[in-house]
Amino acid sequence: MRPFETGLFLDRIPYVTSGSGPDPIVVLNGGQAFVRRPTPARAQRDARRIARLLPAGRPVYVLGYDPVPSADHSIGTIVTDVARILRDEIGPATVMGISFGGFVAARLAADHPDLVKRLILMVSAHRFSPEGRRSIDRQIDCAWRGDLEGFLDEFGLVFRRPWLNWLIRWRFRRERTRLRETMNDPAVIVRGLNAVAGEDFGGDPSWLAYIAAPTLVVGATRDPFFDVAALQETARHIPSARLHLFERETHMLPVERARAAAKVVKGFLAAQPFAG
User: Fold this and answer.
1) What does the record list as coiled-coil region(s) (predicted)?
2) Superfamily grouping for domain 5-129+202-270
């Protein structure tokens, strides 16, 4: 098992890293990185899970998010932070965005093409599906009202396997008495979700044409947040993109089908750059 170390970039952006050397991979984590109260132990568990999707032998950085986001928190402010980290600390890298992190990764690649050598959007697209957007709006409403139980209920059917959906609901019920300890400040959750909900990502996808990096879009045909139409639209507008869809899988594809997803990612990273 590869060793992991934790630290802070810009004195506020948490990260977990493993390995050293050239050709780094930078991972922009999903929304769980700001929905749950961040701890080094939780960040390391996330990093170990994510590392299973990536080839061994390359340095990996898994970035979290500002624990005290400002009132103007947006995808743009997150991109500015990540670009500064790459420019000053890590260097140009392969960038993988998972779910929420995919919004950041795609914008980073479009705005700073010199910093992104290859781009991977894992269970993510440039916009939500209609169902996904409604779910995000409900999450924001629950978090705004401090209804953390209602917030977690939105995640009750994200797995393909029924027993895992049952397990996650059971776990939520067990944790109800300590939700305030394990969940982040509702204001932080709202600002994180508003960073994507506050923009009309689907209105004009033309900015995707500025992504110069060879791109892999990995999605699932039963993902409630990013449907096939959104995934196809994303891949179609990026000049050098290929789309790999997993049939009958859901948003938890990277967890339930980690080996299969890793095979696709490793094949993409090992291949020569391709034309769109």
Assistant:
1) none
2) Alpha/Beta hydrolase fold, catalytic domain (3.40.50.1820)
